[in-house]
Design a protein that fits this description.
The complex is a heterotrimer of chains A (281), B (434) and C (295). Chain A has 281 residues and is mostly helical. In chain A, 75% of the residues lie in helices and 0% in strands. Chain A has one domain: Orthogonal Bundle (MetI-like fold), CATH 1.10.3720. In chain A, helix 8 crosses helix 14 and helix 13 crosses helix 14. Chain B folds into two domains: 164 residues, Periplasmic binding protein-like II (D-Maltodextrin-Binding Protein, domain 2, 3-Layer(aba) Sandwich); 198 residues, D-Maltodextrin-Binding Protein, domain 2. In chain B, the strands form four sheets. Chain B has a five-stranded mixed β-sheet with strand order 2-1-3-12-6. In chain B, strands 10-7-11 form a three-stranded antiparallel β-sheet, sandwiched between helices. Chain B has a two-stranded antiparallel ribbon with strand order 4-5. Classes of the chains: A mainly alpha (281), B alpha/beta (434), C mainly alpha (295). The interface between A and C is large, with 90 and 92 residues. Chain C: Belongs to the binding-protein-dependent transport system permease family. Chain C: This is Lactose ABC transporter membrane protein.
Amino acid sequence: MSKKAKASNAVQYVILTILSVVSVFPFLWMIIAATNKSVDVTKGTLIPGTYFFENLKALLASDLQYLNAFKNSLVIAVVTTVLAMLVSSAAGYAFEVYKSKGKDRAFNIILLSMMVPFAALMVPLFRLFSKFGNIPGLKLVGLNSPGAVVIIAVATAFLIFFFRQNTKTFPRELIEAARIDGLGEFGIFTRIFMPTMKSTYAAAVVVTFMTSWNNYLWPLIALQSPQKRTLPLIISAMGSSYTPDYGMMMTAVVIATLPTALIFFLMQKQFVAGMTGSVKG
Amino acid sequence: MKVKKVLAVMMAGTMAMGIAVCSDAGLGTVKAADDASDKTLTIWAWDEAFNIVAANEAKEIYQKENPDAEVNVVTMAQDDIVAKLNTSLSSQSYDGLPDIVLIEDYKAQGYLTAYTDEFAELDDVAKPDDFAAYKTGVNQADGKMYGIPFDSGVAATFYRTDYIEEAGYTQEDMQDLTWEKYIEIGKAVKEKCGVDMCTLDPSDIGQIRMMMQSAGSWYTDAEGKVSIEDNQALKDAVTEYKNLVDAGITKQVADWDQFVGAFNNGEVASVVTGCWIAPSIQKAEDQSGKWAVAPFPKMEINDASINASSIGGAGWYVLKNVGHEELAKDFLAKTFAGNVDLMNQLVKDITLVSTLNTASEAPNYSEGSEFFGGQKIFDDFSNWTKEVPSVNYGMHTYAIEDIMTEAVQAIVGGADMDSVLGDYQIQAEAAVAQ
Amino acid sequence: MYKSHSSVQMRQNRRSWLFIIPSMALIIAFVFYPMVQAFFTSLQTGMANNLSFSGAANYERLLTDSTFKKALFNTVLYLVIQVPIMIILALVISSMLNNKKLKFRGFFRTAIFLPCVTSLVAYSIIFKSLFATDGFVNAILMNLHIISNPIAWITDPVFARVLIIIAITWRWTGYNMVFYLSGLQSIDDSIYEAASIDGANGFQKFKSITLPLLKPIILFTTINSTIGTLQLFDETVNITNGGPANATITISQYIYNLLFKYQPNFGYAAAVSYVIVVLIVILSFIQMKVGDDKE
């Protein structure tokens, strides 16, 4: 290796190390803060303390209903992810496998919806969902029901686009072979496509779960009663409270970050592979 | 056919899952029906050091006589309360709403006008005459009373006697203060003690609001019309505010926590705000004996301005469609609407300055406060409360104030006051015209 | 034979709509229908639900509304400054990480992606405390003698905007990096080797190989980031709450304020929201055009 190449390599390591530290530091800081008393957190201590369990106890004992919010978040994120995988992947698959002029047109319309910002939908969605609450059959998805948060995240243009792109890498011969074996079209989708495209689903699960877990604006509007609140709502409320307990707050943040971190680390390999599939088309 | 079948199964599964989710998470919500056997009340308030404590003590008192009543006191950020009332009431979905809610005085008229039918009339619970005169206007609509006034927002100058004396002034100098004098003292404090005179939050211009009210004026006039461009009191207040900023004796803060931190850590020599700040000041136990309270400074440049004003303050309101109207009214009648014992206890626990007239009979009211060097602060607060000029807060205080923060920052930055206020008169008119 | 084949296909074609209909129905119900509704609402004024038709009054008000102009300015500012910084940073990082000889690639990749697992609210709160006037960042900068007085990150209008930009960049750079890394992995190494033999240096390789091959992905991420930035809400609400004096407010937050902070004004809020729709459509169109031209 030439001197110049070595120097440029060293520069790369320095840059990457700095960026990694900058990326990771807030996490370390948050974890350290979670183990310290509130006063020490405000003083900016960088030494891990021994106060974590006290913070945890205080958090669980506070009337924020943290565990309940954790459960709400989990239920919403899991149900959203499962439904989104079924509904959006079916659409993405069909757009690619059963190509037709009509479907391409429909697909373009769906893509257009990506351009509609949520802020523009806030007013009408809020009014629409408040009506749902008064219709007996739709109470499930009315305001203040977790269903209202789930249902608008099930079909997204992003996911449909993502699945369509990945379907391009799905070998057509498998479909033909399955048809010859007498498998129905839906069976091909569930029994051949789904198992084959595991890494695509993994990437989609990571993205969907994280988006749902971290969603703030719509739950803020749609979930009114304290018992229905999700974690981001609770954490935001803690941050804007009159006398924030920073140790307790950071404990709440650490715990709230665990599930997404866990999912990411478990699925990291498949996630990257799935992403690769989406950009190949 | 098979496809359809499978799809149908899939959809059914989806629905079933959805039902499971919703019914699962639906546990513990309050049903919106007036069920006499259901004696559960929910109360929302926002300050855990102050009004939440009050609600909890009221709950204790009420439950002594009504052991079968269940009362949930919920802490909710004030912004969240506002947003939730707006969303729920405009969509008439009462699920999860409280029966009793604390509403800040500035916001009360807005709700009472937009959602009159949602609030319970409280004329049979209390009479306006039972409360301090300046408070009663905000709780009424069409001559009916909808809210039970809670705390006084009477403004006061809390100051550190040690800093003031070190700067060469006496407690005598702090009486009948003007803003001009206040700035003069502030400069001396900054020079001699190295601390700022007070905190300022560029997003919160409460100081200007207080100054305006001390001259009997508001962003809106008596008819509720926006009054910014030709409002002399507002102009004078902005002038005083600019002088204060230009003097370089203020510490900038961004939120409540930093605001409290500044005086608890001894970084400022005074706090000019509502009397409800007292419990937060007293949190710094090591500063006991070093604090005193003086009246609100008046504006020398404005003849109408007096040494009394108000900021914040709130009242209890009953949401009548949530389902426990009678129980909620009964709760208020036996607690905040007239229970002197409760007030007496709250004086001690949260230094509440009640706006209930009979509260002045409470024995703790005439006690001196050790933290404030033995000063009989409640006597002072009550006396000042009587002098507070009554103004019509109108329905849009915060909508206008959010706009005004921009105007004030522009003027402080050097823009011409008349032209800025002229522009913002139009802005504010557009913001309130609906 | 031909006929029967085609009828099978036709049946398949019709049935295949069943895969699509659930998604279509949901998107029409929760995106397009509300969009149309929003337009009608934007032509009405009134308090809460008592709306009446008022023509273009709400749109006229936009022209004189200084808070709206501020929100629009801020949103565009974040977009114009933050998106390019982030895209370039993500590109540089990913081309460094694509070097197979690099040690600790996995570690670097994971570390830089890590911010993406935090919720927007959570990281906003962390940033708010790190960048407090007497917070950690100021302490470090002062210890390093980069600054002599603490920076008022949250109360100074300029620094507050800088802080928002830093925060968003921290959160999203790793996310975009993953897309580029995936794209880079599908580029054959032999192309780079051939370029090296021809004497191309790192930057030249980046410019003439990496950029053109990644163009579709760059376009995709740019449009995605543009849309995301135009909808910015969580960060400004939780870090600066739009302050000081609306200096960092975004359009989404202004809409929220109009709806839920003051007396609800559904009509005007809808009119403001249509501005974002128009902006996104125009910007996406421009970006696609630019993307096409270089082809």
